[in-house]
Amino acid sequence: MTLSKLVIKNITRRRGRFVFTLMGITIGIASFVTFLSMGGSLKSEINRESAALGANLVVTPIGSCAYEQVSILTGEILPSNITMSEVAKIRSIQGVNAVPVLTEKSAINNKPVSLNGIDVVQMMKFKGWRVAQGSYFSGHDDPSLVVGSAAAELFKLAPGSTVTVRGQQLTVRGVLQETGGRDDLTVFLSLPQAQRLYNTGDTVSYVAVKVDDLKNLEGYIQTIRDATNLGVVSDKQMLKSVLSIVGTVNITLQMIAAVSVLAAAFGIVNTMLTATYERKREIGILQALGARQRTIFTIFLLESGFYGILGGAAGVVLGLLVSLTAAPYISQNAFTSFVKGSGGGLIDLKTVAGSILFSALVAVAAGVYPAWRAARLSPVEAISYE
Amino acid sequence: MSNVIIKASDLAKSYETGAVTTHALRGVSLEIEKGSFTAIVGPSGHGKSTLMHLLGGLDRPSAGSVFIEGTDLRGLDNSGLARLRGEKIGFVFQFFNLLQGLSAKENIEVAAMLAGVPEKDQGARALALLAQVGLADKAGSKPSQLSGGQQQRVAIARALVNDPALLLMDEPTGNLDSASEAEVLEILRKLHVQGKTVVVVTHNNEIAQKAEQVICVRDGRIAA
Ligand SMILES: Nc1ncnc2c1ncn2[C@@H]1O[C@H](COP(=O)(O)OP(=O)(O)OP(=O)(O)O)[C@@H](O)[C@H]1O
Ligand SMILES: [Mg+2]
């Protein structure tokens, strides 16, 4: 017999209570891990999208805030308030390569899909896409579609397939090679075609800008602002403000998780206090056999710590399963759409070990009061208990 | 003097329960010799268990002193008392002596663990002690699968795990039928022959008659 064997025998004696207490901490840690992994993949996805966007500057209608900037990265619809004459003004600035984009949404087989109207020639130069199947747009006003690799796979599209957009049958002309960004899930059409289908006149949603001289970014921003009365942000500013929103969301999620871990901790306190009452006599017997207060304290603390380690391990497994299986089904909005397709693959060994350690620490902390109560019992008081 | 294992002087113990003070012991002095067989008798509620707890360092007196093998228990803190109990004393109580979730063998192994016996030696030690009380075949039985007498014998075996000089038993045959009682009695006799100091709180005349010394506690005092 060792202390830990004795502890395991004690803890598993009341099967039902053991299982339910364990479930509490398991669920708490699972939600913690789920939110952590989702938040983590959210961040890495944003970084990836921002890199895939490939712009140094993004021009949006004046007064647009971080939420609109998130939408650029997620492919959500933006109000289209920028006119082509303004785009032309940006283009006329020296050392600037500007590409207007109109973001819209459509559905294929009832699944939502992002549609981007693009300046097909400029965008190709801008992104350096490669075509995997079929061919790219033939010209400025080509009426057909080019689709990203993931979208092609998802909707089973190949060159020659037709897609109905706003009642209009359009033919897929080409499929792009994988880019690793949002472009993979996007359907592209030429800007004039998109503007016609969606009746947006000659407006676009945003303008992606690459500059020749990166050192003079501030100068370009000022020049564009002076020329157009539009809002301009650098990719770094955009990333910063988007990440700060995500950070707020993450903190909120983690607080929810913390509350469930806290509730589980009280479950442990309750279970352990009940155990000290039930085992009062046994505590007395152990003391008569020579167990010191310190030993009694250790036995009870180990018991709650054991709940923490076991519940933590189970919670990590459950949390990973949930984030892997549930993430793709989460309804799409600006924030959660990032998580789509990225899975919860961001959990590393450090997070696993950290979560289990966290769980063990919470459980041990929860066990301190009951263990102290148990250790403080005088032997005679414990023995006389019936 | 060196032959005295327990020496108690003017022991008093009172319990405060709300406004009521119960004087369980009102000045008890006694000496118990090493290797002797002592019975503590007396009417119910007159302080026998209280006395046994004080003699074994399970509780502290309100006044007076206890010396065990020359050690003044007043000089020991809680963990010192625990160490003393673990090293020198084996306790057997009247009821529910065993840890309920554990088998007879495991009960003894826990005591062995507390006495510092290495894990690999605990099993053999437990089986030898169970054999000593005639329960080698019940090693795997849980307390609920044992009779009252068998439970008491396991408790005695467990009390012997640290090879204590002193065995303190509170009515070890109190709730047993006469057959079980005879078995337990026989074990006590053997232990006495082996040289253990045995102190038994009892209502049982047979035990009292076998004892070398009988201490009668009445109303918290020693009666003649
Ligand atoms: N923890 C306690 N709190 C208050 N009073 C107590 C406590 N323990 C014992 N007493 C009282 O002290 C007195 C002596 O009790 P004790 O248990 O020593 O009697 P006893 O001689 O062992 O009786 P029995 O033969 O029934 O076991 C009794 O009046 C009892 O009610
Ligand atoms: Mg009694």
Automatic annotation (TrEMBL), chain A:
One of its GO terms (cellular component) is plasma membrane. Coiled coil: none annotated. It is a multi-pass membrane protein. GO terms for molecular function: transmembrane transporter activity. Its main location: membrane. It is found in: Cell membrane. InterPro entries: ABC3_permease_C (IPR003838), MacB_PCD (IPR025857), Macrolide_Exporter_MacB (IPR050250). Residues 19-225 form the MacB-like periplasmic core domain. PANTHER family: ABC TRANSPORTER PERMEASE YTRF (PTHR30572:SF4), MEMBRANE COMPONENT OF TRANSPORTER-RELATED (PTHR30572). This is ABC transporter permease. It comes from Geomonas paludis.
Automatic annotation (TrEMBL), chain B:
GO terms for cellular component: membrane protein complex; plasma membrane. Residues 6-224 form the ABC transporter domain. Keywords: ATP-binding, Nucleotide-binding, Transport. It comes from the Bacteria. The keyword Phosphoprotein does not apply. It comes from Geomonas paludis. InterPro entries: AAA+_ATPase, ABC_transporter-like_ATP-bd, ABC_transporter-like_CS, ABC_transpr_LolD-like, MacB-like_ATP-bd, P-loop_NTPase. This is ABC transporter ATP-binding protein. Belongs to the ABC transporter superfamily. Macrolide exporter (TC 3.A.1.122) family. GO terms for molecular function: ATP binding; ATP hydrolysis activity; transmembrane transporter activity. The keyword Nucleotide-binding applies. SMART domains: AAA (SM00382).
